[in-house]
Structure formats: C-alpha cells, structure tokens
Amino acid sequence: QELGLWWTVPRKGWLWAQWYQCSGSAAKSLLFRFLPFLRWLPRYPIKDWLLGDIVSGFSVGIMHLPQGLAYALLAGLPPVTGLYSSFYPVFLYFFFGTSRHNSVGPFAVISVMIGSLTESLMPSEDFMISVNGSNTTIDEERRDAARVELVAAITVLTGIFQVALGLLQFGFVVTYLSDPLVRGYTTAASVHVLVSQLKNVFGISQGEASGPLSLFVTIIDLCKKLPGTNVGTLVTAIIAIVVILIVKELNHKFAAKLPMPIPIEVGSVILPQIIVSTGISYGVNLKEKFGISVVGNIPSGLKPPVVPNMSYFGQVAGNAFAIAVVGYAICISLGKIFALKHGYKVDSNQELIALGLCNFLGGFFQCFAISCSMSRSLVQESTGGNSQVAGVIASLVILVTILKIGELFRDLPKAILAAIIIANLKGMFKQFKDLCTLWKSNKVDLLVWIVTFIATLLLNLDIGLAASVAFGLLTVIFRTQLPHYSILGRISDTDVYRDVVEYEMAQEVPGVKIFRSSSTIYFANVELYAEALKKKSGIDVDRLIEKKKKALKKLKKQQKKLEKEKAKRKKGAADTGSPSLPQHAEDGPGVSVIELRSEESGAPSEPTLQSLGLPKPNFHAVILDFSPINFVDTVAIKILKNIFRDFHEIEVDVFIASCSVSVLAQLERGNFFSSAITKASFFPSVHDAVEHISRERHQASVSTQPCCPSMAMERAATSTPPSLPPQVDHSTRM
C-alpha cells in the first residue's frame, strides 16, 4: 500500500478565479509590491538612521558630480546628461528599489556600451561643416543633439525590456551570467574604457571606430598620433591620477581609523577648478594658451520631458537588451552582497522593475542608461547609509548643482575627468587575480573567464556578450554530457549507499548493480548514460544479446528440421502402419530438452541463456538511482525503455529508485509505462529496492527447494544444474 501511494501523482488545479479576484487586500498587496517604500517608510527609525543617511547621501552626491560628468563623456554625450542621469534615476529608485545600499546612477561599463553605439550610429564625421569654404570642423552642437536623441531612445527601450522581464518574473535570467562570465566581461569592458580615455589623457583628437576589432584599431590610431601629444594635458592627467590613487590607498589603509572615506574625486575636481578660476582672474586662458580641452558649457536648470524618437528602436533593440541584462546583473549582484551582509532580502524581480522604470522615465529627461556603481555603493554603506533615503539626499545634491552651480564646471579640463575614470578602474583590473584563483579551483570557470575576456576585446561589447553567454551555456551542456558515473555499494549495517571506488566501506550488493549519474539525463547525454551503465555492469550487453539472437536463430532452424523429420516419420508410419519412432539421439539434447519443457508447461517458453549455452551475467538486477535526475525528455524516455528491454533480454531485472514525483509524471506523460514496464519497478529509495529484490530472490529460492532427498536426487537427474539460481519472470509480475 505504501509503494502504491508513493508514486501516485496528485493533481492540482489552478485557482484562476482567486488570482484575478479583486479585493482590498489584494490591491494593497499589489501596491506594496510595486511601491516597496510604502512598506518600510512608515517604520523608518528616524533617530537611528536619519543622520547616517544624510551624511552618506551627501558623500555619495558629491561623488556623483565628477562621475556623472566623466561617464557622460564616456558615453559620447554632453556632460550635463551625466548630471541628469545622476538625478532622475537616483530619485526614482527611492520609490521602487528594494536594496538599501545600492547607489544607482551612471556606471563605466554601461557608459562605454552606450558610447560604442553612439560612435557607430552617429560618428562625428557625419557632422562636418565647412569653415571659410576650405576648412572643415565638427558641428558639435548638432552632433550632441542627435546623440542625445539616439541615447534617449536606447534608454527608454532598455527600461521597457527590464520592466517587461520583471513583470514576467524573469529575474532569473541573470543566472545565465555566471560570476566568472560577469567578472571577465567587466574586466574586458574596463580595457575598452581605458583605451577610450587615452585620447583625453594625451590631448589628441582621434577618429571613432566601432564593430569587431575596433579596440585594436583605436590603439593603432592612437600610437600613430602620439607625436602630437599635448604635454599640458598629459601632465594634468598624470598628476590627477597619482593623487587619486594615493588618497584611495590611504583610504584603504586607514579605513578603520577614519570616520568616513575621503571623497577624493571632489578634491581632484575642486583643486583644478580653483586653479582655472585663479588663472582666468590673472588673465591666463588655459584653453587657448596650452590647448587643454575643457568640459565647456553646462546649461543650468531642468529641461521638460521629450518623447524619444521610436524610429531608432529597430536599430538598437539588440544593444538595448544587452545593456538591460548587464546593468541588471551588476545591480542585483551588488544588492545581494549588501543584503546578505546586513540581513535583509532583495526582491530580484522588483529590482528589475525598479531599474527598468528608472531607465524608462529617465529617457524622457535626456538621461542615459544607468546601473549600480560599486565605488559609490561602498561609500554609501561605509559612511552610515541605512536606507534609500541616502539616495534621495544624493539626488538633492545633484539637483542643487544642476540648478545653481553647474556653470562653475565649465572650465574643468577633460583630462581630470579621464583621470577620475581611469583611477576608478583599479578595482576592475584587480579582477585579473581571478585567473590564479580559478586555475586552482575550477578549470572550466577559468576557461569561461578567459573566453569572455578575449571575445569582448575582439568582438566589442555587444557581440562579445552574446558570444560569452553562448559559450557559457555550451560549458553547461558539456558538463552534463560528461558527468560522473558510479556503481554504488552499501555501507555495512546501514541503509547508506556510496560510490564503491571512493568509499572503501561501501561494498556491492551481491547480484545487484546500483548505478548513478551525477547529472540529469536528457537528449544530449542519455546515450552516454546507457553506454556507461552497460560498461559499469561489467558485461558486454549488446554482444550477449547478439549471441542470443544467433543462438535462437540456430535453434529455430533445428526445430524446423526436427519438425520436418517428424512429419516424414509420421507419414512413413501411416503408410506402413508401424508406430511412430522415438527421437534420434543425433537430433541434439538441447532441442529435445527445450521441446520437452514446452510440452510439459503447456505453453511455449522462451529459451534461457543457460539452455542456449551462453554465459549468464553474475548479477540478476540493476537499480538506477534517480536522485540526481530532475527532468527527462522524450529522447531520454525512449532510451530508458531500451535499457529495460536490453537487460530483460539477458535475464536481468531493472528497477528505478529515488525518482521524484515530477519526473515520474513526465515518464507517465511520455508513455513510458506498459505491460512490460510498470510502476512496481519504482521504489522510494535505493535501500527499499535492494530489500525488495532480496525478498523476491529468497522467496523464489525457497519455492524451488525439494521436499525430501529422493525428490532432490530425481530433480538433479532431470533438471538444470542446481548451482544456477532459477530465473523469475519479472516481466509477468510487472
């Protein structure tokens, strides 16, 4: 009864009416789900958290200023768009986000992905205008306006993808981006970022390359133009990089003693700003005298929303999806790290929706796609940030800058912004240490890291990401195709079964082979599963079946020959009137024995391996441990049927143990069961299957034992040798 109840699959109906039932509690739950701040804001501990959030928000807001300007240039956009991207999305995240420590906003990797797209679709060469009829120059105003329009469309489409994936509960899509893949990709993207900023470090003008191998084209072009380096720009950039790195090291070294990290980006911006202002006051124009490129005009005030040009959607759909996935992967990874550290939960699907709404709505206000910055998030956490209120404070700092003091950054050298970008890549380049760690721990993950890094360098960011994901999925297939196969044995006096090769205490059950695969079985590996099972069994199953077929074919010929001779003898006896002669000895004992058994039983019986003179396997049962199996497909079901059939041919019973209810249901839907394969072959555990086999063998041996010595002598003279155990027809039982 227990076995019968175990495999019964309960049928659960979906209560669609309850799903779509409108009620006050359902509406409240839905509202709290999509607006998480309604859940935590009423319980906000003002006395404990507010001061820390204010200090943290002010620190992060100050960091947003130079990073927003720098990452806007990285995206090929006017600097003011970086300030917009540091204000609108950060403010919106307060309402929709679930991470208390993530600092959303411009991010280097996302910015360089956008920059490569703007340079390929809106190259500067398309905006050349003639001056004095002979010279040509770039119409920067028209180019910037066109790029802003393009990026707004990209950002809105990125947001649409993210919101759609979140509503469809596709937050798990990031699981296809393994940690080695993400780290290899961001490291390669950092190389792209570094190369893109070298022109601002050396103060040279450079053409824009896009597509595969564009990184190397840019490097070659840069090397050719190195003789035209602007010394003033180079010196400014080097000094800024050195100062930033030194202060970052001091931050790291004295982190325990400092009340809060030093926002070095602010110092590196204010110092040159003071120098420039002082130089202007003394009549020294750095831009004209030394040729140092500066940020330029930064308009004050906020602009009204503009509907994006949807005609670009078809051109940028693939790139927008890549940006959506990468941005979310980085954001949720950091969010889970902080959530685990501080003991709260992050809703992955809601984070996808929150990030999507920040991008979607931000696209109407000239923002570019955003993600989460590790450096800002670490500062937000270390300076006492406890909630999304810190993000609101940071956005207010940016708002004041946009409205009142943005114009002060007009004469800021671009070399300073390039220095900020390059110095902030230090953490990314530290990921090269992963190579040593992965070499020691997992060679496959190391291969994923290297292939992702190389593919992203060679094929650019968008195609490189697609190639990396494809390769990552291939490694999963290869791993499932080459799992570990093992024969299990029982540890004495327990119901525990382990690999007999790895555990000395595990001993094989006599007459039973227990087989396990470390992976699930499906179309890509099920044939390897069947081959490994036959190999681990210790006999050549296919060869034995072939020998049996040949022996049966030979036997049929002998039987036909015997029947013809019988018919001749009967005909001759009828003609002469003499009785039928007995069977000649030369007809062969094998044929006569088989025929005698058929006549005695009253029904035809298939010859056994022993009667055919073939070797019998040294085991009588096979147990397939299905505990690692979580799904089967139609191909796997077909091969499993063949396994049952082949082992039945060589008089070996097959049982399945530890099969989950879901897999059992899949087998039932795939027409796996028949009169030859029934659910009586399934058991809840390996030990249950072993006990069942032992009981059946014992009962079969008891039923065939003779009652007295005289019967034993008679049976020994007329039956098969007693050393071979009698074969039980399990197909009839099943």
Automatic annotation (TrEMBL):
Its main location: membrane. SUPFAM superfamilies: SpoIIaa-like. One of its GO terms (biological process) is transmembrane transport. Residues 502-693 form the STAS domain. CDD domains: STAS_SulP_like_sulfate_transporter. Keywords: Membrane, Transmembrane, Transmembrane helix. It holds the Pfam family STAS. It is a multi-pass membrane protein. GO terms for cellular component: membrane. Residues 556-588, 714-734 are annotated as: Disordered. InterPro entries: SLC26A/SulP_dom, SLC26A/SulP_fam, STAS_dom, STAS_dom_sf. The chain crosses the membrane at residues 49-65, 71-96, 150-177, 231-250, 262-284, 320-340, 352-376, 388-405, 449-478. This is STAS domain-containing protein.
